[in-house]
Write a structure and sequence with these properties.
- With 192 residues, the protein is α+β, with helices and mostly antiparallel strands.
- The protein is built from four helices and nine strands.
- α2 packs across α4 and α3 packs across α4.
- The chain is globular.
Length: 192
């Protein structure tokens, strides 16, 4: 079994795997359109995390595919179903390795259905940035999620175009610099 990491699974891999490959899927865009009430926020003050939304055939979302040993599949699926319980569901998609000598293959992704209770949908990036800066959950500040995702994307796929992510990161950093209450959090962001 292969699992695609396009959000926190890119830097917080808490399950066993035997191989990882950098690549992309088509027909989707990564967006901060999912509320996080259990990891990067609370029900009273939800954070924002990524999901994938349908897009044009030219659209690509880069991430990391992890291969799970057959004997670990049941436990990893149980773990990820719990980790992604805030509205995500499993789907099979075609993965295209960055290394073109490797053939594309099917794999599992977790994405948030638009009808799940935590689906936030579109908002202006300024509004999402304000929500991110003010949200903290059991897994830590929401800014860590945004900055860690931007950092890992720059490390593993520096050529990837992801305006939504990098513009949000820039707006979050700007808000941190403007607000004395959050200035000590600037070192959490790579480009601060």
């Amino acid at each position: 079994m292969w699992v695609f990491g396009y959000g926190s699974l890119m830097w917080k891999v808490d399950f066993p795997y035997i191989e990882k490959i950098i690549g992309y899927i088509k027909n989707y865009e990564r967006r901060f359109y999912q509320f996080s009430t259990d990891h990067r926020g609370t029900p009273e003050n939800p954070g924002r995390v990524v999901t994938l939304i349908p897009a044009s055939e030219q659209s690509m979302v880069y991430g990391i595919a992890y291969r799970i040993k057959d004997c670990d599949v049941a436990n990893v699926v149980k773990h990820l179903d719990y980790r992604e319980k805030g509205g995500y569901e499993r789907k099979t998609v075609k993965f295209y390795p960055k290394d073109t000598s490797v053939e594309p293959f099917d794999m599992t992704i977790y994405l948030a259905a638009h009808d799940n209770p935590n689906y936030a949908g579109h908002a202006e990036l300024d509004d999402i940035a304000e929500q991110v800066v003010k949200s903290i959950g059991p897994s830590g500040p929401n800014i860590d999620y945004v900055c860690n995702l931007a950092k890992i994307m720059r490390e593993v796929v520096p050529e990837a175009k992801d305006d939504h992510l990098f513009e949000l990161e820039s707006k979050v950093i700007k808000l941190l610099k403007l607000n004395d209450q959050f200035k000590d959090w600037l070192d959490r962001c790579d480009k601060a």
